[in-house]
Amino acid sequence: MDVSARIDILAGGRDDRPEDHEDDGPQTGVVEKTRTRTRRPSMYRVLLLNDDYTPMEFVVDILEQVFHKSRDEAVAVMLNVHQNGVGVCGVYSFDVAETKVAQVAATARQNEHPLQCTMEKA
């Protein structure tokens, strides 16, 4: 390499690096990490309300079919509803709770029972 070529390289002129590489020295910068925290979905209690007309056996059937309770669990929840006026069927995310309330209402309506089911934030 002759002296003029060496001066060009040191002065930032022509060099042997590929032309698409425009890095003329060390680069500095700040790397920011963004951390997103996902929140757990709000949970909702699904409540069954007592009435004087819906048969207890129908309530037990609803608890078994819609809420997938065992026979013993369904009877316990039904007795709690009967004695206290309201009982918790389960705690679910909003969409699941809303679906279960709609299923209870539709099944009660089909069977001509006034059974009421609601949901509240847990």
Explain what the structure shows.
This protein is of the alpha+beta class and 122 residues long. The chain has a domain at 49-121: 2-Layer Sandwich (Ribosomal Protein L30, Chain: A). 40% of the residues lie in helices and 17% in strands. The protein is built from four helices and three strands, in the order H-E-H-H-E-H-E. Strands 2-1-3 form a three-stranded antiparallel sheet. It is rod-shaped. 17% of the residues are buried. The mean pLDDT is 87.
Write the layout of secondary structure elements.
Elements: H1 3-10, E1 43-49, H2 56-65, H3 71-84, E2 86-93, H4 94-110, E3 116-121
Antiparallel strand pairs: 1-2, 1-3
N-to-C SSE string, H for helix and E for strand: HEHHEHE
Query: Strand count, sense and closure of the main sheet?
Result: 3 strands, antiparallel
CATH architecture of the domain at 49-121: 2-Layer Sandwich
Q: How confident overall, as mean pLDDT?
A: 87
Q: Which structural class do you get from the secondary structure elements?
A: alpha+beta
What is the gyration radius calculated from CA atoms?
Answer: 35 Å
Going across the biggest sheet, name each strand in turn. Answer: 2-1-3
How many DSSP helices?
4
In quaternary terms, these chains amount to: single chain
Shape: rod-shaped
CATH homologous superfamily annotation of the domain at 49-121: Ribosomal protein L7/L12, C-terminal domain/Adaptor protein ClpS
Separation of the first and last Cα atoms: 79 Å
Q: How many strand segments?
A: 3
Uncertain residue ranges: none
Share of β-strand residues: 15-25%
**So what's the CATH class of the domain at 49-121?**
Alpha Beta
- Enter the CATH topology name of the domain at 49-121: Ribosomal Protein L30, Chain: A
The share of residues in helices is 40-55%
